[in-house]
Design brief:
This protein is mainly alpha-helical and 149 residues long. It has helices at residues 19-29, 36-43, 48-54, 56-80, 91-106, 134-148. The chain is built from six helices and no strands.
Length: 149
C-alpha cells in the first residue's frame, strides 16, 4: 500500500506547476521513494537534478508534510514502547524508538531539559572598580611606589 503525500498546499505559491512538475513530484514522493535518479529513469528525464533545483521549495514543503503526518505514528511508537507485551523488542524496537524521537524533535515536540542551579555559599559575583584611564593608572602606580619607599 502506498501513501499519498501529495497534499494540496493551501499557501499561495510564487509560480504555477506544470504537468511535468506534478508528474515529477508524484513519482519522487511515491514510486521512487525520494530517489531523484530513479525518478529521472521512471519518467525518462536525462537530467532530473535540473527539475529538482527548480522545485526545491515545493519538495521541502512536501517533505515537511510527510514528517508532520508521521509525527502521529511516531507518538504511537513511543507509547507502544511502554507496553511490556510489545511484538517488537530488542535492537529493532530501539531503532524504532530513536526514529520516533527524531521525527517528534523535527516537528517541535522535544524533550524538555530542566537545569537546576542551586548556589550555596558565596555567589561568585565580583564588583570591580571603574576602569582607569592610562594617565590615572600611571599616577596611581607612581603614588604607590612613593608610599612603598
Amino acid at each position: 500500500m502506498t501513501q499519498n503525500y501529495l497534499i494540496p498546499n493551501t499557501t499561495p505559491k510564487k509560480r504555477e506547476l506544470t504537468e511535468k512538475d506534478h508528474a515529477f513530484l508524484a513519482t519522487l514522493f511515491d514510486e521512487a521513494a525520494g530517489n531523484i535518479a530513479v525518478t529521472g529513469r521512471i519518467l525518462g528525464i536525462a537530467n532530473p537534478y535540473g527539475i529538482f533545483a527548480r522545485l526545491e521549495e515545493e519538495i521541502i514543503d512536501r517533505a515537511r508534510h510527510i514528517i508532520a503526518l508521521n509525527s502521529v505514528r511516531a507518538a504511537h511508537v513511543l507509547a507502544e514502547g511502554l507496553d511490556p507485551s510489545a511484538t517488537i523488542s530488542g535492537p529493532a524496537q530501539s531503532i524504532r524508538m530513536q526514529c520516533a524521537e527524531k521525527i517528534l524533535d523535527r516537528v517541535g515536540i522535544v524533550k524538555k531539559e530542566k537545569i537546576d542551579i542551586n548556589l550555596e555559599g558565596t555567589t561568585g559575583i565580583f564588583i570591580l572598580p571603574p576602569k582607569r584611564s592610562e594617565n590615572e593608572y600611571v599616577r596611581a602606580t607612581e603614588e604607590q611606589a612613593k608610599e612603598a619607599r
